[in-house]
UniProtKB/TrEMBL annotation, chains A, B, C, D, E, F, G, H:
One of its GO terms (molecular function) is hydrolase activity. It comes from Fusicatenibacter faecihominis. This is Nickel pincer cofactor biosynthesis protein LarB. InterPro entries: P2CMN_synthase_LarB, PurE_dom. Residues 115-246 form the PurE domain. One of its GO terms (biological process) is 'de novo' IMP biosynthetic process.
């Protein structure tokens, strides 16, 4: 919920004054002791909030979800382990879990999905990271086209989908092992490519370093790279670019 | 020059038939033996062409420039050493050299600059890489705002410029040493940030690896990273995003 | 207990001669076979003793605790696993365990806390390491101000606490992932900053290497770095500096 | 010159109003285009200013020196190459150069040296880095005791100097190759040790990485580490600690 | 010259007995003091000999060339610097130098070239390493098809040559930067691919490590990798495979 | 089954038209959503298909096996965990499991084994990787000679088997720790050697990096290297070379 | 048992002819399929045999023990897990297990221990590796002096034992973390020092790499290094040197 | 000159009292400001002194040589550049330079060479490092057998020299690239092997890291390793072992 919208709701009586007060008094930060929550973004642009859950306790995540829920935000949690989900599901029955992507979502209100982001993987094993990217882009309001297992060792599988991929405003290329998907992709499309190396592989893949270096060293133009297995980061930036392209970006918002 | 434009010029008599033939017969690739030139992009979207000159001989660059010039393309060369420039200047008197950025430009026709890309550096020493990014974005048609020496060790210098930076459709953050500029920046603006680590530093900076890792591991949302010292790659992608935002991207083109 | 104090206690009859003998005859080292204990420090300056428990057996730790207890020392153990604690608690009922920081304390006498050390973290996940630093500084006699989750991706959270942080004689900055907290902090305060990289992160954080390199390469003045996750080392040195500042250091003690 | 002092000089007529105006109007930053100078520190605490000259042009350094000189600051430049010095000496005849440490100093007013910092090296080859540390500490107002070539392979050379080293409020331990000096030192003294790894060595020293790792992994208490060859950083922090100990720190300032 | 051939020449009087003796008495090794030459291979299979010249003095190379020349061998030297060539050319007027590939050849007798090896590069800058591979394969008796600048960022340039490449019994894929050429190639052809990473690139290419890792981690089947810039090794093995395929391998030899 | 064979079977009535249609209509790719299967190879050359099972779910592998089985292909799965096998065995009773090599095979028709590939190991611990190589080569139609525990620290064990090894058209050298087997082997035989580093070792073996580097840096001629523990890749390429040598390669097929 | 001894036993009737035959017929190697056992050493010099058990199955170790037992050898196994020991103990009731050092011994005949090897550790946590070294040296016939927890952070603990250490013909210095023990030791004694880095440590110790680099880069004379945690290798070589010094080496044997 | 010898010379009048006084008064260390010289060793055991000259100025080396010369020591300098030698030769006309090994020697008295050390290299390019080892061993009193270019890629060259190598009390194995010489050697001889990795190689040899890792990971028994290119260290330790074996070690001395 954005500030403008909040004020209008108060004006129209849709929101009680006391609730509006409660929301506004948390500004600029809500300090939970173990976490300082920034409620600015949601209020500024209506975007949802996200929580990186990897090394937080279930209790800490619970506190953060409560705080954002109270503010009327949509919230997405990443890197959520099944046991964390089980704990949280009991406290937030409306919580949704995507186990492959390890993502939870607690939706306050629906989000319209616009434009198009293409999320592609080199192999079957890269799908969990790709789903993290795809769900993130969808959470923030992008339509997503999933195109999986089109790695460069069978280049014709990729070429067969090129026209489809070119329709996206931004492409997310997810690949482990040699990680060459991004380079080939950036040479085929004209819009920006966000490359995500994955930790899929063994031996000299060094947990994704091989794919990361491949992507950083690409001689294809129009590609940038995020951290290994960082599907979230790629989905977030792809959504930014998609919204800029659609015109639903800062100019209109 | 785009294909549509070429055909119209033939139709209107602005271009002679023989010249049009010469251009079209090179399609799809022109093989110089040591290089296979792709003239598609220029014809498809009117963008200029670029040559990575680092490990090419001056003679090879000369051949490539001739080929693109013949096609009516603007051409930009990166990583050009002074002695390469001296050789080329004699053969292409209209050649322009930006020594700090090590860039040459051979312009066939002017390019309109639209929108806004902000190019920021952490320190004075990062300026050459930043200039490579800025000139690249300008070459491809973006307006650029240069904001230099605003590194995080003196955070108020950066905060003083935040409003200005927020006006850009895309931000390029150039930093060596600890490379923290990108993270802070991405937390301050809402549009995408392209982070460029530089090889500025000594000891455990390992030629830019420290800054690269900082950028890849940023917990700020909305940032992706290119190779160490790859100002060109950042400028190229910033231009793509800027054009998508301006609406002068593929939709209108 | 210091030597001077010991002798005075003998003189005043507060300590029996036989007990004083027992203490003094262990000088300079007590050899337990698997460990050579140095009782000098406690005797010289009344500081407590510490034991790194990571790869010691519970039996070995028990022996060391007994030996220090016998000497009238406060003892702190770091990197203590819950099962080690369970074993030791049965033998030392007065033992205190801080599970998040994995620290045990066996106190012979209270310690006055003076001056001020600020312990800050970039994120919630860095808190365990920060607690190790904070408890260590407290064990050795420093007052500690805990300021958590003020990472640079939301720079205003940190700026809001700057005045508070400046009051400390020494700042401990704990951060994983990109580890930029230290640089920004050192630019904001005038007293020394001890930076502690943590192993929080994934992918190209390489178990804390990314944060470590960021901190080593900081262009901010007035910062030095300890090993990844070494909250103990940072807390120890922060206490040294704090005591030098307070004047309760070696000159007066 | 501090603000208080400036105002008093105006009051007493020692400084003309126009000069005071010129100084104050630059606040908070002076933007030279390629550099944003922060004049706060000098005004706040009377400390001098420093410039990292490694990758700046001689012209850029000249501009920065002029700017600080105009403000009445002492200025020190680090990593100055002989040819940079030659250029600058012609423009600032009072400039002093320490070639071994690659440091220039442009002094506006003398600085009193108080307390004691010990700067030690393992070998003869580590002296240039040690001199950078020593000169930095002296520039900021610390007395320095230089103790060179006391590496651990001849441990008695170090033991012979222990009493002398213990008199310092802070010790800087400079060592390349195996870098063990810091560990032994921190075990011998009770005040903080700042360890500086140097790039002295060959083969598996990897340009100082071996010494850096040794220092980070020290099991001695009371030591922190700066970047490879970063004598400046160690000297700066040693001076901070020394001033805190002397009581000339922030409490009195 | 093979042993069988030597004996036949003696029998037919084509070779004098004294010359045959001189050759045979060097068996099995000729010890030059600084080098132990193995004349077995030439005698066993008529293949030529090779010398790695990188860190040998011109005098040492001269001695080795003389020794092989005396045995009637063809000799090829790799990594020969221009000044080494100048020295050697005066002593061996028939010496041939390929400056781009840094190869010298001293031919005793012509070698028939059979079958087909394809040597491909990703970019123009990879040509020197590719030439080392191509000349090596030719020296040992393979026909070579050179296909340069067909990197994956412009995948259609490669696809246009696929049929031609498939005709080879073995493919050498030479690429720096992201090094993805090998993977795509191995997916397109059915014969073995020898991948050669090159040190072309900058920043996170780490002198060829990026390309090396890409190649080692390829999920394409039928590819193996040699050291960075080791065109010689790839050309040698490609020739072995080509001869096995042609049937001029050990079975017929 | 190859296309020619398929058509002949239709012609002779051995295969029903509807079955042939089913096979052909999947061309060129069968998209299972999570995987794009390429049935070309089997149809082109009668080779079997392979599935890398490491990070696929048992359900995904089941789907892929079904698809290939339906096409009349032999299928081999690598890196299969016992629990995956248990799941699959219930659904494909004819499935064979080689637990040491972690390979499953689902055979539609027998494969003739020709020529000879030698698979050698340095130690007992390298046998699992060697078995992966050996079974792969056998799956694709090569005879295999297994020669285990002939590492270079007891060089006479290897020399005793040299004559036997020389009979192979291609040698696979599998070694962990110092990984020197490949170099010595390549110096002893004249046919190509595929070196496979294994992750056997501890400490500075870094999970196989030591052996990998040894193999890449070999000064022996005629060797190329695959990824750490990549027995499959080595077996595949050894089979390619063996078939080229036997003449059952593409020329006759 | 040595060959000479064996023949004498036959001559004197102490050994039956058939048993001697059985032993001799295994020469030079006994091939168990998964292992090629070298019985030469035992026969040549009466030394015992060793088996590296880390990645062997209990069944394989059993076979190897049987084979050596049959030959009358003493056998020692290293890196033996408790479950491997349990399996083996049932089959070899006389087997002895040293759990801390993970060593098993199966003794055919006693070994005289001569000379002196000193085995020292920096900390308590390094003892398991030190015990591996000490037991190895004892197994091969050296007397061993164990001196534990004398790390350099408390240098006086080491100095107090110097005279004792100097009596050894060879010193083994075992240390993790910063690994500086070796350097200090080599500066204190005149006989050779074998340094063993251990994987004790955390963070930037990188599993022992820090200690390894420290030891390799030592500027002390008279020290060489073995692999991380390789107590066996150090003990073996210390025994060799000790026997050379005692004169029970090859000259007398 | 040893202390006992000095006193005897005084007694016999061979040395003047004043000269003896001058020597003795420097004990224990002579502090040159930039260097603390330890004259103990020479006096204790008559061994010569050594100076590592790499990063010392010619003036500093001159001072050190003078100091040792004055004490009647033989002195050897390592890593001496030609220009350093030129400077020193003018001041010490009797100075000897070995340019390949970069060693200078300033001999006060001859040294008897006893026993035998074998110094072997894998290739011609490893000879400079081997010469540093050989000359060092000779300087300290060992006879040396040089056996060059016997690398494992031509294993028979090494086997042909095995008997000769076995005669040495200690073997120094010098190798770059894959560095396998040490492993094979240690398997062939029964006395200790000191392995020296060299920086010879390119690409993935990483300046000697490949050879270093090979040597550290050797599964051969009886080998330890020194730093890359550290011929001096290997020669020193080989001499120690050789003297222990000969009986000229500490027991007789």
């Amino acid at each position: 919920m954005e500030i403008k919208e909040l004020l209008e709701k108060v004006k129209t009586g849709e929101m009680e004054l006391s609730r509006a007060e409660e929301i506004l008094k948390e500004l600029p930060y809500e300090n939970l002791g173990y976490a300082n929550l920034d409620h600015h973004r949601q209020l500024r642009n209506g975007y949802g909030e996200t929580v990186y859950c990897e090394s937080k306790t279930a209790e800490q995540i619970e506190g953060i979800l409560h705080s954002f829920q109270k503010m009327g935000s949509n919230v997405m949690g990443t890197r959520v382990k099944p046991e964390q989900y089980t704990y949280l599901k009991e406290r937030f029955p409306e919580l949704i879990y995507h186990p492959e992507a390890r993502i939870i979502m607690l939706m306050d209100h629906p989000v319209e999905q616009v434009g198009m982001v293409a999320v592609c993987t080199a192999g079957t094993s890269d799908i969990p990271v790709a789903e993290e990217a795809a769900l993130t882009a969808e959470f923030f309001g992008s339509r997503v086209d999933r195109i999986f297992d089109v790695g460069v060792a069978g280049i014709h599988r990729l070429l067969a989908r090129t026209e489809e991929i070119r329709k996206a405003n931004c492409v997310v290329a997810v690949a482990g092992m040699e990680g060459a998907l991004g380079s080939v992709m950036a040479g085929l499309v004209e819009n920006p490519v966000i490359a995500v190396p994955t930790s899929v592989g063994y031996g000299a893949s060094f947990g994704g370093v091989s794919a990361l270096l491949t992507m950083l060293n690409s001689c294809a133009e129009g590609m940038a790279t995020v951290n290994i297995d960082n599907g979230f980061g790629a989905g977030y930036m792809a959504n930014q670019i998609n919204h800029l392209a659609v015109g639903a970006g800062k100019k209109e918002a």
